[in-house]
């Protein structure tokens, strides 16, 4: 505890500023916890509690900067390389191996956040996500104080073994402190995150995600027990993922028919098949807006989205390797007419 903390406590007490007083006390408790004096930290937290004994519970009202999120019911197909790493995460947490801080990094749409939801579901743990909108404050020094309070509260929960805490896109508060373009305030925020992770209860699982791994603070990377790369999708992986996503949505829209061969041909028209997040949106929108009286209308819509061509030319479709039946589906022209047109051409 620093002299500044004592001065602030006295100041806030005389001003009858209860919220600021409690925030300062939470920061003091976190400092005690970081220095190894856990009993004193819990005693300070007990004094802040309305009860005579300290029995902290995890709820959105107790933890100021988090909110609970539900598990995902949608499938999460992952390449074998990533899947094996995630199984390792589940095993490490399940066997209480003391490995509790993870960083998932990769491009947007690679499945990082959805994977966190699945990990929490498999482990039967409640999942809470840090709310950066409330954590980051425009007042000088307040963001750092909020981060300290957050970790102090997390370290004081009654059953940390039942929780997973998600820092989704943690780069919002943890940038490279050596970057000359970085604001000094955010540099201090990053230092506060480092300090918080160092003092984190080993029974509490924290998983962070980022799209900006290359610009990440190297000291922060070292704080994580394991960093998992979500960019490891081959073209074959993405085609497999697309088929699983298609199967999931076809079950919801039972009027739509299944034609994997044509579906795969359409995706192969793309120069680069997108990651699962974008794939899911493409497929879902194509099916959801399709004509319920035409079982393959979604394939026509998907082709139009992929090629940006609403009215494909019959001859061009033939040159791309589509069969007469497939051309009929994509163009809306009957097979007999397609055959006559191609013969004439």
From TrEMBL:
Ranges where the AAA+ ATPase domain occurs: 98-234
Protein name from the UniProt record: AAA ATPase central domain protein
A Pfam entry, by short name: AAA
Record keywords: ATP-binding, Nucleotide-binding
Similarity comment text for this entry: Belongs to the AAA ATPase family.
GO terms for MF: ATP binding; ATP hydrolysis activity
InterPro entries assigned to the protein according to its UniProt record, in alphabetical order: 26S_Proteasome_ATPase, AAA+_ATPase, ATPase_AAA_core, P-loop_NTPase
Lineage of origin: Bacteria, Pseudomonadati, Spirochaetota, Spirochaetia, Spirochaetales
Domain of life: Bacteria
Classification via SUPFAM superfamilies: P-loop containing nucleoside triphosphate hydrolases (SSF52540)
